[in-house]
Amino acid sequence: MKNGTDSFVFLGHWPSAGSFGFNTDILATNLINLSVVFGVLIFFGKGVLSDLLDNRKQRILNTIRNSEELRGKAIEQLEKARARLKKVEMEADQFRVNGYSEIEREKMNLINSTYKTLEQLENYKNETINFEQQKAINEVRQRVFQQALQGALGTLNSCLNNELHLRTINANLGMFGAMNEITD
Q1: What is the pLDDT of residue 77?
Q2: What is the Cα–Cα distance from 83 to 164, expressed in whole angstroms?
């Protein structure tokens, strides 16, 4: 025997009945080797594989649990946001209604104020017209009186002598003075 591989080759030529040896037939030995390897892997790797699977399962369950918690929090926040939105919408509607009623109230106040102003302007106009009418009537009266007085004086001057004329003038001036005092 020159080396260890020669001894395996030599053992491979032994008959398989009743003895222990290595089979060098590749097709026959692969199935046996694979089954031995799988058996060893299953026996020794079962704990490692089950630990890996358990760890993976726990991570997945934790992720699902965290997702459920986050989902619950998100739903709770969504409900709070909806409640706030509903409250804000109700307040906006209330402001809108109050705004419309305030606008209507201001509109009515403006209309009433405009009517009052128009009434006052109408009253001022009527008072001004009455004042101007009275002023015009008084001016016409004074002119008529002055013309009548001048006409009467002209008639009296042509008909009266100086002494009668002076007495008439004095009497008329007295009446005229009294009349001016009354009108002033």
Answers
A1: 94
A2: 111
In a domain, residue 103? The reply is yes
Please count the residues of the chain. 184
Which residues, 6+ apart, have CB-to-CB distance to 145 below 8 Å?
A: 179
Count structural domains, the chain: 1
User: What DSSP assignment string belongs to 155-178?
Assistant: HHHHHS-HHHHHHHHHHHHHHHHH
27 in a structural domain: no
pTM recorded for the entire structure: 0.37
pLDDT at residue 121 in the model: 92
Structure tokens at 34: 């694979």
In 3D, which of 65, 87, 68 has the Cα closest to residue 76? 68
Residue range(s) defining the domain that contains residue 64: 32-135
Judge whether 72 lies within some domain: yes
